[in-house]
Amino acid sequence: MSKGSNNKVKAVRVVVPDVTRNEESSRLGSGLSAGEARDLRESLSPEQRQQVETTVEELLSLLGSAHAIAVLSEFAFADGPLRFSELESSLDIAANTLSVRLRELTNAGLLVREEYNEVPPRVEYEPTAKAEQLFPAFGHFHVWAIDHELDGVDTDLSR
């Protein structure tokens, strides 16, 4: 099912991989075609490939945690550091869950937590360079979602 797109969005459209496009026009966020990415993967030694696959698995597991993508997405589209209270008010997430996700993302090296010695206490979170390299993926997902919806997917997380 396709959604209509507006002219404003078309001006910022990015090209994302699609099985209906040929490899020449299909570009991944890193600037590699699907074929180039496949060649790079195949050029890795077995140990390097295992390490890369493990890292991807760990990343997807982390991002698959409840609300992790929503939290990182806030940073991807923010203009600077975010406070816990800002995240709490912009996301419909329980405070304890938000706290756990922020801790996990910080422990993974995707966010930096900065405490200020003030009254009342102030804590800000900022994405690391490592996290910022993931942010184009959020743009790709949003562009894709402008044109598409998933069929038959139950998105009710309350069950």
From TrEMBL:
Pfam families with a match to the protein in the record: HxlR
Segments for region (Disordered): 22-50
Alphabetized SUPFAM superfamilies for the sequence: Winged helix' DNA-binding domain
Source domain of life: Archaea
Entry keywords, A to Z: DNA-binding, Transcription, Transcription regulation
GO molecular function term, any single one: DNA binding
KW Transcription (keyword) present: yes
Annotated ranges, domain HTH hxlR-type: 54-153
Cited Gene3D superfamilies: Winged helix-like DNA-binding domain superfamily/Winged helix DNA-binding domain
Name the record gives this protein: Transcriptional regulator
Organism: Natronorubrum halalkaliphilum
